[in-house]
Amino acid sequence: MANDLREHTPHVQVWDAPTRLFHWAIVILVFVSWLSVDQGFMTVHLCSGLALLALLVFRIGWGLIGSTTARFRDFLHPPRTVLAYLRNGAGMYAGHNPAGGLMVIALILVLLAQAVTGLFANDGLHFSGPLALLVGDDASTRLTAVHSTIFNVILLLVWSHVVAVGFYLFVKGHNLVKAMVTGKKPHAHVPAEARITFTRSYIALLLLLLVLTAGAVAWFTIQGGAFL
Ligand code: HEM
Ligand code: HEM
Question: Which of 65, 107, 183, 208 has the smallest count of CB within 10 Å of its CB?
Answer without folding.
Answer: 65
